[in-house]
Amino acid sequence: MNILFLSNASGYGGSERTLEILAKHMAKKNKVTVFVQNEIHRDKLNESGICVIEADKGWIVKKIIKDLYLIYDEIMRNDGVIANTNKAAMYLAILSFFLPKRKIKKSIVFVRDFQWKYCHFIFWALSNSIICVASPAVKEYVNKYKVRPLVIPNPIEFKYKALSLDVGKEDMSTPIILCPAMISRWKGLEYLIRSLALIETDCQLYIIGKIVDEEYYSFIKDEVVLLKLSERVRFVDFTSDISNYYKMSTVIVNTSISDYGGPETFGRTIIEGWSFKKPVVSFDCGGPKYLIQNNVDGVLVKEKSVFDLACALQKILHDRNYSNMLGMNGYNKALQKYNVDIITKTILKELYETAVRNK
Questions:
Q1: What is the reported pLDDT for 172?
Q2: Cβ distance 135 to 287 under 8 Å?
Q3: 323-328: Cβ within 8 A, 24+ apart
Q4: Sign of the CA dihedral 246, 249, 252, 253?
Q5: Which of 229, 204, 226, 231 is nearest to 313 (CA)?
Q6: Where is the Glycosyl transferase family domain (predicted)?
Q7: What are 299's strand-pairing partners?
Protein backbone atom coordinates (compact mmCIF):
# COMPACT_ATOMS: atom_id res chain seq x y z
CA MET A 1 0.00 0.00 0.00
CA ASN A 2 1.19 3.54 -0.80
CA ILE A 3 0.58 5.83 2.18
CA LEU A 4 0.92 9.61 2.36
CA PHE A 5 1.32 11.38 5.71
CA LEU A 6 0.60 15.11 5.94
CA SER A 7 2.70 16.48 8.80
CA ASN A 8 3.29 20.08 7.83
CA ALA A 9 3.11 21.91 11.16
CA SER A 10 5.90 24.44 11.73
CA GLY A 11 6.70 23.19 15.25
CA TYR A 12 8.07 19.94 16.58
CA GLY A 13 6.59 17.94 19.44
CA GLY A 14 4.73 14.81 20.46
CA SER A 15 2.60 14.68 17.30
CA GLU A 16 5.68 14.66 15.12
CA ARG A 17 7.45 12.06 17.26
CA THR A 18 4.37 9.85 17.07
CA LEU A 19 4.31 10.10 13.28
CA GLU A 20 8.01 9.26 13.04
CA ILE A 21 7.44 6.03 14.95
CA LEU A 22 4.40 5.09 12.86
CA ALA A 23 6.01 5.97 9.53
CA LYS A 24 9.13 3.93 10.26
CA HIS A 25 7.13 0.82 11.12
CA MET A 26 4.61 1.20 8.30
CA ALA A 27 7.47 1.58 5.83
CA LYS A 28 8.62 -1.99 6.53
CA LYS A 29 5.88 -3.36 4.26
CA ASN A 30 4.45 -0.24 2.60
CA LYS A 31 5.68 2.71 0.60
CA VAL A 32 5.45 5.72 2.91
CA THR A 33 5.81 9.38 1.94
CA VAL A 34 5.65 12.29 4.39
CA PHE A 35 4.87 15.90 3.47
CA VAL A 36 6.79 17.85 6.10
CA GLN A 37 7.71 21.41 7.10
CA ASN A 38 9.72 21.32 10.34
CA GLU A 39 13.45 20.73 9.78
CA ILE A 40 13.97 18.57 12.87
CA HIS A 41 11.04 16.43 11.79
CA ARG A 42 12.46 16.19 8.27
CA ASP A 43 15.89 15.12 9.51
CA LYS A 44 14.48 12.45 11.85
CA LEU A 45 12.42 10.99 9.01
CA ASN A 46 15.41 11.02 6.68
CA GLU A 47 17.43 9.11 9.30
CA SER A 48 14.80 6.37 9.13
CA GLY A 49 14.96 6.27 5.33
CA ILE A 50 11.45 7.68 4.88
CA CYS A 51 10.64 9.47 1.61
CA VAL A 52 10.12 13.14 2.46
CA ILE A 53 8.57 16.01 0.50
CA GLU A 54 9.32 19.43 1.95
CA ALA A 55 6.75 22.18 2.16
CA ASP A 56 7.52 25.39 0.29
CA LYS A 57 9.16 28.14 2.37
CA GLY A 58 8.31 31.06 0.10
CA TRP A 59 5.80 33.91 0.26
CA ILE A 60 2.72 32.86 2.23
CA VAL A 61 0.00 32.84 -0.46
CA LYS A 62 2.29 31.43 -3.14
CA LYS A 63 3.56 28.87 -0.62
CA ILE A 64 0.08 27.63 0.27
CA ILE A 65 -0.96 27.31 -3.36
CA LYS A 66 2.21 25.42 -4.25
CA ASP A 67 1.80 23.13 -1.23
CA LEU A 68 -1.80 22.37 -2.16
CA TYR A 69 -0.76 21.42 -5.69
CA LEU A 70 1.97 19.14 -4.35
CA ILE A 71 -0.37 17.47 -1.87
CA TYR A 72 -3.08 17.02 -4.51
CA ASP A 73 -0.67 15.20 -6.82
CA GLU A 74 0.61 12.99 -4.00
CA ILE A 75 -2.90 12.07 -2.84
CA MET A 76 -3.80 11.01 -6.38
CA ARG A 77 -0.71 8.75 -6.46
CA ASN A 78 -1.25 7.14 -3.06
CA ASP A 79 -3.74 4.59 -1.77
CA GLY A 80 -4.44 6.39 1.49
CA VAL A 81 -3.64 9.63 3.31
CA ILE A 82 -3.18 10.39 7.00
CA ALA A 83 -3.41 14.01 8.20
CA ASN A 84 -1.44 14.44 11.42
CA THR A 85 -2.10 18.06 12.48
CA ASN A 86 -4.62 20.89 12.35
CA LYS A 87 -2.82 22.48 9.41
CA ALA A 88 -2.72 19.17 7.55
CA ALA A 89 -6.45 18.67 8.12
CA MET A 90 -7.15 22.20 6.89
CA TYR A 91 -5.23 21.58 3.66
CA LEU A 92 -7.04 18.29 3.15
CA ALA A 93 -10.39 19.99 3.79
CA ILE A 94 -9.65 22.59 1.09
CA LEU A 95 -8.59 19.89 -1.35
CA SER A 96 -11.76 17.89 -0.68
CA PHE A 97 -13.56 20.23 -3.10
CA PHE A 98 -11.24 19.14 -5.93
CA LEU A 99 -10.36 15.54 -5.13
CA PRO A 100 -12.49 12.55 -6.13
CA LYS A 101 -14.81 11.63 -3.27
CA ARG A 102 -13.28 8.17 -3.04
CA LYS A 103 -9.92 9.75 -2.17
CA ILE A 104 -11.38 11.64 0.79
CA LYS A 105 -13.01 8.43 1.97
CA LYS A 106 -9.53 6.89 2.03
CA SER A 107 -8.20 9.44 4.49
CA ILE A 108 -7.61 9.38 8.24
CA VAL A 109 -7.47 12.62 10.21
CA PHE A 110 -5.86 12.64 13.65
CA VAL A 111 -6.95 15.34 16.11
CA ARG A 112 -3.98 15.73 18.44
CA ASP A 113 -4.65 18.91 20.42
CA PHE A 114 -7.41 21.00 21.98
CA GLN A 115 -6.64 24.20 20.08
CA TRP A 116 -7.79 23.38 16.55
CA LYS A 117 -8.95 26.25 14.35
CA TYR A 118 -11.74 26.12 11.76
CA CYS A 119 -13.13 22.90 13.28
CA HIS A 120 -16.65 23.35 11.92
CA PHE A 121 -15.36 23.74 8.37
CA ILE A 122 -12.82 20.91 8.63
CA PHE A 123 -15.22 18.35 10.05
CA TRP A 124 -17.93 19.36 7.58
CA ALA A 125 -15.60 19.15 4.57
CA LEU A 126 -14.09 15.87 5.81
CA SER A 127 -17.32 14.23 6.90
CA ASN A 128 -16.39 11.19 4.78
CA SER A 129 -12.95 10.84 6.37
CA ILE A 130 -12.10 8.67 9.36
CA ILE A 131 -11.55 10.98 12.34
CA CYS A 132 -9.22 9.59 15.01
CA VAL A 133 -8.10 10.74 18.46
CA ALA A 134 -5.47 9.37 20.81
CA SER A 135 -7.46 9.44 24.05
CA PRO A 136 -10.99 9.79 25.50
CA ALA A 137 -10.01 13.32 26.55
CA VAL A 138 -9.80 14.41 22.90
CA LYS A 139 -12.88 12.36 22.05
CA GLU A 140 -14.88 14.57 24.42
CA TYR A 141 -13.48 17.64 22.67
CA VAL A 142 -14.33 16.35 19.18
CA ASN A 143 -17.81 15.21 20.26
CA LYS A 144 -18.73 18.89 20.67
CA TYR A 145 -18.66 19.13 16.87
CA LYS A 146 -21.01 16.15 16.52
CA VAL A 147 -18.16 13.95 15.35
CA ARG A 148 -17.81 10.37 16.58
CA PRO A 149 -14.10 9.56 16.31
CA LEU A 150 -12.15 6.35 16.65
CA VAL A 151 -9.78 6.19 19.61
CA ILE A 152 -6.36 4.96 18.47
CA PRO A 153 -3.65 5.55 21.13
CA ASN A 154 -0.20 6.88 20.40
CA PRO A 155 2.48 4.18 20.03
CA ILE A 156 5.70 3.51 21.87
CA GLU A 157 8.84 1.69 20.77
CA PHE A 158 10.75 -0.63 23.07
CA LYS A 159 14.19 -0.26 21.47
CA TYR A 160 16.54 2.31 22.95
CA LYS A 161 20.25 3.05 23.08
CA ALA A 162 22.31 1.84 26.03
CA LEU A 163 22.89 4.21 28.94
CA SER A 164 25.78 6.58 28.39
CA LEU A 165 27.93 7.32 31.43
CA ASP A 166 28.53 10.93 30.42
CA VAL A 167 24.90 12.06 30.64
CA GLY A 168 25.63 14.02 33.81
CA LYS A 169 28.31 14.50 36.41
CA GLU A 170 25.93 14.01 39.32
CA ASP A 171 26.19 10.90 41.50
CA MET A 172 23.99 8.32 39.77
CA SER A 173 22.87 7.07 43.20
CA THR A 174 21.02 10.34 43.78
CA PRO A 175 17.33 9.91 42.91
CA ILE A 176 16.32 11.83 39.80
CA ILE A 177 12.87 13.24 39.06
CA LEU A 178 12.55 13.62 35.30
CA CYS A 179 10.11 15.99 33.62
CA PRO A 180 10.35 16.01 29.81
CA ALA A 181 8.41 19.16 28.88
CA MET A 182 8.76 22.25 26.74
CA ILE A 183 9.09 25.43 28.79
CA SER A 184 5.53 26.68 28.39
CA ARG A 185 2.91 27.84 30.90
CA TRP A 186 0.52 24.97 30.28
CA LYS A 187 3.20 22.53 31.42
CA GLY A 188 2.66 23.67 35.03
CA LEU A 189 6.35 23.53 35.92
CA GLU A 190 6.05 25.99 38.82
CA TYR A 191 3.94 23.45 40.72
CA LEU A 192 6.62 20.81 40.26
CA ILE A 193 9.37 23.17 41.42
CA ARG A 194 7.37 24.17 44.49
CA SER A 195 6.68 20.54 45.32
CA LEU A 196 10.41 19.80 45.18
CA ALA A 197 10.92 22.23 48.05
CA LEU A 198 8.64 20.04 50.19
CA ILE A 199 10.38 16.74 49.41
CA GLU A 200 12.65 15.59 52.23
CA THR A 201 14.59 13.03 50.22
CA ASP A 202 17.77 14.33 48.62
CA CYS A 203 17.04 14.28 44.87
CA GLN A 204 17.60 16.11 41.61
CA LEU A 205 14.99 17.48 39.20
CA TYR A 206 15.73 17.42 35.47
CA ILE A 207 13.45 19.49 33.24
CA ILE A 208 14.18 18.71 29.59
CA GLY A 209 12.62 20.68 26.75
CA LYS A 210 12.71 23.58 24.36
CA ILE A 211 12.13 27.07 25.73
CA VAL A 212 9.06 28.39 23.90
CA ASP A 213 8.13 31.08 26.44
CA GLU A 214 11.11 33.15 27.61
CA GLU A 215 9.02 35.14 30.11
CA TYR A 216 7.76 31.95 31.73
CA TYR A 217 11.29 30.53 31.76
CA SER A 218 12.49 33.58 33.70
CA PHE A 219 9.57 33.18 36.10
CA ILE A 220 10.30 29.54 36.96
CA LYS A 221 14.04 30.21 37.26
CA ASP A 222 13.19 32.93 39.78
CA GLU A 223 11.07 30.36 41.63
CA VAL A 224 14.07 28.04 41.77
CA VAL A 225 16.24 30.77 43.28
CA LEU A 226 13.53 31.95 45.68
CA LEU A 227 13.04 28.43 47.02
CA LYS A 228 16.82 27.86 47.24
CA LEU A 229 16.73 24.95 44.82
CA SER A 230 19.50 26.03 42.45
CA GLU A 231 21.61 22.98 43.36
CA ARG A 232 18.70 20.58 42.84
CA VAL A 233 17.11 21.75 39.57
CA ARG A 234 18.71 21.30 36.18
CA PHE A 235 17.27 22.66 32.94
CA VAL A 236 18.38 20.69 29.88
CA ASP A 237 17.96 21.93 26.31
CA PHE A 238 15.68 20.04 23.94
CA THR A 239 17.09 16.84 22.51
CA SER A 240 15.28 14.48 20.15
CA ASP A 241 16.57 11.41 22.01
CA ILE A 242 16.26 11.49 25.79
CA SER A 243 16.42 7.73 26.34
CA ASN A 244 19.55 8.10 28.49
CA TYR A 245 17.71 10.45 30.81
CA TYR A 246 14.80 8.04 31.12
CA LYS A 247 17.25 5.27 32.03
CA MET A 248 18.98 7.27 34.76
CA SER A 249 15.75 8.64 36.28
CA THR A 250 13.89 7.37 39.33
CA VAL A 251 10.43 8.71 38.49
CA ILE A 252 8.79 10.48 35.54
CA VAL A 253 6.43 13.37 36.22
CA ASN A 254 3.91 15.23 34.05
CA THR A 255 2.45 18.45 35.48
CA SER A 256 0.52 19.79 32.49
CA ILE A 257 -2.56 21.78 33.50
CA SER A 258 -5.91 22.68 31.95
CA ASP A 259 -4.98 26.33 31.28
CA TYR A 260 -3.06 28.20 28.56
CA GLY A 261 -4.01 25.68 25.87
CA GLY A 262 -3.59 22.54 27.99
CA PRO A 263 -3.94 19.91 29.22
CA GLU A 264 -2.18 16.99 27.54
CA THR A 265 -4.24 15.31 24.85
CA PHE A 266 -2.47 12.01 25.49
CA GLY A 267 0.69 12.01 27.61
CA ARG A 268 3.52 10.55 25.55
CA THR A 269 6.06 10.98 28.36
CA ILE A 270 3.98 8.62 30.49
CA ILE A 271 4.14 5.68 28.09
CA GLU A 272 7.79 6.49 27.39
CA GLY A 273 8.45 6.26 31.12
CA TRP A 274 6.58 2.97 31.28
CA SER A 275 8.72 1.57 28.46
CA PHE A 276 11.69 1.96 30.84
CA LYS A 277 9.75 0.42 33.76
CA LYS A 278 9.68 3.78 35.56
CA PRO A 279 6.90 4.93 37.92
CA VAL A 280 4.95 7.93 36.63
CA VAL A 281 3.11 10.77 38.37
CA SER A 282 0.70 13.21 36.75
CA PHE A 283 -2.00 15.73 37.52
CA ASP A 284 -5.45 14.18 37.05
CA CYS A 285 -6.46 16.02 33.89
CA GLY A 286 -6.44 15.51 30.13
CA GLY A 287 -5.07 12.37 28.56
CA PRO A 288 -3.00 11.20 31.56
CA LYS A 289 -6.06 10.66 33.75
CA TYR A 290 -7.24 8.08 31.20
CA LEU A 291 -3.80 6.48 30.84
CA ILE A 292 -2.96 5.97 34.49
CA GLN A 293 -4.75 3.64 36.87
CA ASN A 294 -4.10 5.35 40.18
CA ASN A 295 -1.76 3.49 42.55
CA VAL A 296 -1.59 0.56 40.11
CA ASP A 297 0.66 1.72 37.25
CA GLY A 298 1.20 5.33 38.30
CA VAL A 299 -0.09 8.07 40.55
CA LEU A 300 -2.69 10.72 39.76
CA VAL A 301 -2.78 13.80 41.98
CA LYS A 302 -5.18 16.72 42.19
CA GLU A 303 -4.43 19.29 39.48
CA LYS A 304 -2.18 22.11 40.72
CA SER A 305 -1.87 20.59 44.22
CA VAL A 306 1.74 21.18 45.26
CA PHE A 307 1.31 19.26 48.52
CA ASP A 308 -0.28 16.19 46.91
CA LEU A 309 2.39 16.14 44.21
CA ALA A 310 5.16 16.32 46.81
CA CYS A 311 3.59 13.49 48.82
CA ALA A 312 3.29 11.26 45.73
CA LEU A 313 6.89 11.86 44.70
CA GLN A 314 8.15 11.42 48.26
CA LYS A 315 6.45 8.04 48.58
CA ILE A 316 7.95 6.79 45.31
CA LEU A 317 11.42 8.01 46.26
CA HIS A 318 11.15 6.45 49.72
CA ASP A 319 9.45 3.12 48.95
CA ARG A 320 11.41 1.10 46.40
CA ASN A 321 8.95 -1.81 46.35
CA TYR A 322 6.07 0.55 45.61
CA SER A 323 8.11 2.30 42.93
CA ASN A 324 9.09 -0.99 41.27
CA MET A 325 5.50 -2.22 41.33
CA LEU A 326 4.23 0.92 39.58
CA GLY A 327 7.00 0.75 36.99
CA MET A 328 6.52 -2.93 36.17
CA ASN A 329 2.73 -2.62 35.92
CA GLY A 330 3.17 0.37 33.62
CA TYR A 331 5.65 -1.52 31.47
CA ASN A 332 3.27 -4.45 31.03
CA LYS A 333 0.42 -2.09 30.20
CA ALA A 334 2.48 -0.25 27.59
CA LEU A 335 3.60 -3.53 26.07
CA GLN A 336 0.04 -4.81 25.76
CA LYS A 337 -1.79 -1.62 24.71
CA TYR A 338 0.67 0.90 23.23
CA ASN A 339 3.29 -1.21 21.47
CA VAL A 340 3.94 0.30 18.04
CA ASP A 341 3.28 -3.03 16.31
CA ILE A 342 -0.25 -3.13 17.72
CA ILE A 343 -1.03 0.51 16.89
CA THR A 344 0.45 0.23 13.39
CA LYS A 345 -1.68 -2.82 12.60
CA THR A 346 -4.80 -0.99 13.81
CA ILE A 347 -4.20 2.02 11.55
CA LEU A 348 -3.24 -0.09 8.54
CA LYS A 349 -6.38 -2.18 9.02
CA GLU A 350 -8.52 0.98 8.88
CA LEU A 351 -6.71 2.21 5.77
CA TYR A 352 -6.93 -1.14 4.02
CA GLU A 353 -10.61 -1.67 4.74
CA THR A 354 -11.57 1.82 3.59
CA ALA A 355 -9.41 1.39 0.45
CA VAL A 356 -11.25 -1.84 -0.40
CA ARG A 357 -14.64 -0.22 0.18
CA ASN A 358 -13.80 2.75 -2.04
CA LYS A 359 -12.00 1.30 -5.05
A1: 56
A2: yes
A3: 323/250, 323/251, 323/279, 324/277, 326/279, 326/280, 326/295, 326/296, 326/297, 326/298, 326/299, 327/274, 327/276, 327/277, 327/278, 327/279, 328/277
A4: negative
A5: 204
A6: 170-332
A7: 281
